[in-house]
Amino acid sequence: MKYYSTNGQAPIADLKKAVVKGLAEDRGLYMPEEIYKLPRQFFDNIETMKFQDIAYNVASNFFGDDVDGDALQDIVYDTLSFDCPVVKVTDNIYALELFHGPTLAFKDVGARFMARLLRYFTSTTSGTSITSTTSKPINVLVATSGDTGSAVANGFLGVEGIHVYVLYPKGKVSPIQECQFTTLGKNITAIEVDGVFDDCQALVKSAFMDAELNQHMKLTSANSINVARFLPQAFYYFNAYARMKALGKADELVMCVPSGNFGNICSALFGHEMGLPIKRFIAANNANDIFYKYLQTGKYEPKASIQTLANAMDVGDPSNFARILNLYSKNGQRNAEETHQAITSLISGATYSDDQIRKTMQQCYEETGYVLDPHGACGYQALKDGLKPGEIGVFCETAHPAKFKEKVDDILGTDIEIPARLKAFMEGEKQSVAMSKDFADFKAYLMRQ
Ligand SMILES: *Cc1c(COP(=O)(O)O)cnc(C)c1O
User: Fold this and answer.
1) Is 144 near ligand 1, meaning CB less than 6 Å away?
2) What are the catalytic residues?
3) Backbone angles phi, psi at 55, to 5 degrees
4) Tens digit of pLDDT for each residue in 14-24?
């Protein structure tokens, strides 16, 4: 499969290059030239298949041209060492729980898959790419305000030939999140930046653009712009469809995705392009309503992000919007109006303030006993507000409520239990490198590695 850039100014790439580089030379996002449909028989029997086998079928359909079948199967099976169950919340609303991975965040699947695919492409024996293989280690730089850092660090932990640097703002990350990437050791280095999240992101961006540094070491990024990180999230939606079909409830399925950078919903839309029979989608936002506004007006107007209770969705310029636009413009064949129409006929939006999020969490808990986290709450409420008669809704519960324990307990008056997996991180010893927000300091540090 060949990959083009959404900005249209970069050379066509193969999968290996798209995964190793992450972003195209023209700062655009890589898109596959074609998205193959899965055969009808696959959907006829899907409810009899288990998660890993469903995922392997989806992965081969997408990556099969470029990755050897046995290796791909190992990558998929190794990535999905946990389940993503669909749980009934009300008669017509189900939660797709994506938080049963190692860091209790849905980003675990994408991070684990990407780590393994990167390893496959950089190990000397594999990879069919025209670019030469190399034994030089790859260095993954990731800036985090919490969740991404822990998922990426744990996804790449112990993966040979890859070193991860997690940059996080000193004192701005919750203790539970911090311990998930500062206690790991091995190939994971936590860098505590004396600044805010934007400073961390600026350091990472400057590093990618610094010619001398890129000569010195191989650098790549692991955020959801990377094909290998966002696409595997499509596995969830095929699996959710299968589980709902087994219940006889898949005929008019509405998928609702709490969205920030729009990587997760983008993977669901790619699934839809592969033939997944979802009737329509809802993108649920917190107060950061840029996509919601786009749906209403056809105008995309990025803004500075607003801090909310659902902080992993505090994004003012969602990076995967370019991918969604490119998908429904058919790479520029449709004009802006036709593209907007194609998008609004399949996707609707919703936006919720912190007050509404609190109210939703309380109401859902009182009426059903289900504990929502602030991100999942946006998804649940969007279904409550948006489902039509006859439709069944599935929303993604993107984080375990214990990750936001202080907030959730405060809102619900509960004392929710911290899962053992999370507690284990909290017992480890914190190790991090102190760093100023000056790029010169960060560069000097990396040049010594
Ligand atoms: C990352 C994240 C989101 C947003 O996902 P996108 O793919 O960026 O849209 C939602 N909820 C949680 C808990 C997250 O960590």
Assistant:
1) no
2) 107
3) -60, -40
4) 999 999 988 88
For residue 281, give the nearest of 217, 330, 349 by alpha carbon.
Answer: 349
**pLDDT digit string (tens) for 34-89?**
999 999 999 999 999 999 999 999 999 999 999 999 999 999 999 999 999 999 99
pTM of the full structure: 0.94
**Which atom of ligand 1 is closest in space to residue 258's alpha carbon?**
10
What's the CA gap between 233 and 272, in Å, rounded? 13
Cα 379 to chain centroid distance, Å, stands at 16
User: Can you tell me the distance from the alpha carbon of 346 to that of 271, in angstroms, rounded to the nearest whole number?
Assistant: 13
Q: Please tell me if the CB atom of residue 258 comes closer than 6 angstroms to any atom of ligand 1.
A: yes
How would you classify the pairing of strands 2-5 and 138-143?
A: unpaired
Residue 338 token pair: 């036709």
Pocket test for ligand 1, best of 99, 106, 321, 396 (most atoms within 8 A of CB): 106
Q: Determine whether the shortest distance from the Cβ of 375 to ligand 1 is under 6 A.
A: yes
User: E strands within 299-430?
Assistant: 347-351, 392-397
The Å distance, Cα 11 to ligand 1 centre, comes to 30
E strand or H helix at 130: none
The sign of the torsion formed by the CA atoms of 274, 276, 279, 282 equals negative
Helix (H/G/I), strand (E/B), else coil: 165: strand
Residue in 146, 110, 82 with CA at minimum distance from that of residue 373:
146
- Collect all residues with Cβ–Cβ distance below 8 Å to 343 and sequence separation of at least 6: 295, 324, 325, 328
- Round to whole Å and give the CA distance between 181 and 425: 9
CA of 7 to the centre of ligand 1 (A): 24
Question: Is ligand 1 within 6 A of the CB of residue 266?
Answer: no
> Rounded CA gap, 318 and 383, in Å?
22
Contact status, residue 382 vs residue 80, Cβ threshold 8 Å: no
Torsion-angle region of 186 (φ positive above 0: left; ψ -120 to 50: alpha; else: beta):
left
Confidence of residue 128 (pLDDT cuts 50, 70, 90): very low
